Every structure is written in C-alpha cells, then in structure tokens.
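FAQ: What does the model actually see?

It sees only this:
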Amino acid sequence: MELMMEIFRRLVGFNTVSANSNRAAADFLCEVLRESLKLSESAIYVTSQDSTEGQEKCNVVATIGAGDGGLMLAGHIDTVSAEPLARWDSNPFELTLKHDKYYGLGTCDMKFFLAAAIAAARNFSSSTLRRPLVLAFTHDEETSMAGAKRLRRDDVFKSVHYAVVGEPTKLVPVRMHKGWLGAEFTLHGKAGHASDPGCGTSAIELASELLSQLYRYRDELTDFRQPLLRPEYPTLNVGLIKGGEGVNRIPASCKLELEIRPIPGQDVQDLIGDLQRIADNMTNGNSHCLASLRVTSAPTQPMETSEQSRIVHVAQAVTGQSAIGVPFATEAAIYNAAGLETIVLGPGDIAQAHQPNEFIAAEYLDRTVTVLSTIIEELCVKGGD
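And it is asked to produce this:
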C-alpha cells in the first residue's frame, strides 16, 4: 500500500498533459518496474517517438512470465489539460487528500490505475504465472490514441489473449462501448456586399441547408440500436459553426464541426462515406456551392467483446457486477480490433474526469488491487479458456 501510494503521488507530480513530453514519467515507470517487480532490462520495452510538435512520447511495456495466451493490463500516462487553473482548489500536480478523496490531475483518469496495476503485479512472479502478464502504459490516449496504435504495430500483443483497460468505470466491467468520429464541413459560397443580396451566395444560408440534411441523417441513425448502451442508438452532434466576417458582408465561407458516436455493428468508414455523400449533394444541388469534408482526427471504432468471453465471466464474478456498455470511446477498441478479448474496468467515476478538482475516492484504493490481483490469478495462474 505504501509503495503504491508513493508511485501514485509521483505520477500525479509529472505534467503529462498530452501536448507535453511524457519522457520523465516513462523513465520513472521503468525504474519502478525494474525495482518493484525485479524485472530485467529485457523484460521492459520502451518505444519513443516525436510528436508533430516535436515532443518526445513514450510507451512503457513490461512482461512478467513467458508463453502465450496471457493478460495485458493497459492504461495511459497522458492527461487532458489542467486549464483553467483558477478553478482548481489545490495544485493539480500535487496529490492532495481531503475528505477521503485524492485530488489531482489524472487521479481518476487514470494514474491511480497505473499504480494499482503495478501493485497487483507485485503479488506474482514469473515462477508463479502459467501465462504471461503484460503491463502496457501508453502516450496520447487523450488526443490520437497513437500510443495504443504503436503497440499494435510493434506486435506487443503476440503473447496475450486478454486485456483490461483501466479507464474509470466504478470497477464495473464494460464489454461494449461506442466509437468516435470527428468531421468538419467547409462550405464556399460567393462574397458580396450585404446591400445587394443578389450579388453573392451566403455560405451561412448554405449551412442551414446542410444542417437540415445532417439532422435528417441523425434521425436515420436512430434505426440502429444496441440495448446495452445508453442512449442505445448512435448520436450525431454539431458542436461548432464558424462563418462570416461582418454583418455588412455576404459570407463566402462557413465551417461546421460535428461528432458521431457509432455503436457496435457500424463501421466508421461507412459513416465517413455517408458524410461525403451529403457534401456531394450540397455541391451538386447548388451551382453556387462548393462543399468539402475533412475528418478532423483519427476515428475510433466501436468496441464489443462477447458476453461469453472468459474475461467477461471472470470480471463479472470478481466484481459481482454484470458487464455493461458505455457511450465513450477508449483504447480498448484498438486492442479488441487486434484480436484481444478486452474489457474496460477501472477505479473511479468517469464523471470526475476531464475537469478541475478531479479526484478518486479512497474507497477504490485497496479494492482495485484486489480485483486486478484476482483477475490475474484466474487468467494467468489458473489459466484455461
């Protein structure tokens, strides 16, 4: 417990906001893994790459035991921004205990899980494991999920069959979640003076027609249903519109940004095709309109693991909770697509993430280590499919 809390405290102290390098935190994790788990240099795998902003980003992977069919405990090192700092009641980079809650940036999402995973792994050794245990800590989950994608390219998954992603779920197993697609439409009309409406084509008026088409498409998406999710249908939200330069000018351009959260059974590439057809309809239906579509960041596919999967059965038995679905996206989708039977299961409440005064309740500390240790015991010591 004492070592786990020291790891937790140190991790919160690193500024691993996604825009920054996580090298210092990665080096610390490597040191902890070597010393606390008695691992050799060859058992710890670190990848490093520079981001487009020139910041060094690292994944840290440690393997205990040998063979195949093992378990991966996966989490991310990075966090969202601490801004606005004025809304924090304490230093976001200092672990602060108050009223049985531990405050700090990343406490819930998800630095405590990293410390708990290491603490659980300390209960085992290569001599006691029939199947390998892998700890995988990634970079850039909060932006592009580039770290998890790098793990897949580096063939880190070859020795594992199951994965637990430690995002905050109140320690309730999640076997299904929605995907995510972000896109931007740009509409080009024709500029002109507002005193003569006939001399131009308002891109903002074109945006009104585009919105009508998008909302009709949103209604069509509700034909797809998955009862385990809330809401049980895909969602589409237009969250940002920018257009015009002044009230005395006919706006020549307008941008709309949206997100879609598809459900299992849908493919984000099909959704991109649907949006492209809407853009083409706008262009083909009006000689004064040019519409284009841009996917704003790498999309995430929906994730689903069968309710018959052994890891789902084990997690349900250990927690006493039936597996559920959630509307947010995680790295589990990448691991699931790589062939791993994956669940999301972690301490804390997602409602506390991504906001000032983020915290994790003290009640999760011991319980998380117990849950993870029992899952390791079932899948890596007892084994079986």
